[in-house]
Structure to design on (124 residues):
């Protein structure tokens, strides 16, 4: 008489492990994906401001104000203390460093993020 290899109700352990891994990956993706998109948008804004820094109306105060407004719109924890702008006669360096807490059930991961832009200043 032939025996059935997989009887009714039998669940391979590999399937259960795979489901747990899939659940963990989905949870991380749901929490992290919006943050990664927001960080990318802030990086693009900082890059744009660094490119425009050679114009007279783009002084350091205006750049800081624009970065803070964009960070507030994106719900990123950036303050004026986190922003450093160094100008020389030929270059501008903008550094924005901050920590983003990512909360998971039972664990909080602190993501340390630093944006750095170094651009030449061209006299127009």
């Amino acid at each position: 008489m032939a025996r059935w290899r997989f009887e009714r109700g039998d669940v391979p352990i590999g399937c259960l492990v795979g489901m747990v891994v899939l659940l963990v990956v989905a949870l991380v993706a749901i929490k992290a994906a919006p943050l990664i998109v927001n960080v990318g948008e802030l990086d693009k804004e900082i890059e744009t401001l660094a490119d425009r820094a050679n114009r007279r109306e783009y002084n350091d105060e205006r750049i800081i104000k624009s970065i803070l407004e964009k960070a507030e719109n994106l719900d990123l924890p950036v303050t004026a203390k986190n922003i450093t702008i160094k100008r020389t006669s030929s270059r501008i360096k903008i550094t924005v460093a901050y920590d983003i807490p990512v909360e998971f059930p039972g664990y909080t991961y602190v993501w340390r993020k630093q944006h750095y832009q170094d651009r030449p200043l061209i006299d127009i």
The two ends are 91 Å apart (CA to CA). Residues 13-51 form the longest helix (39 residues).
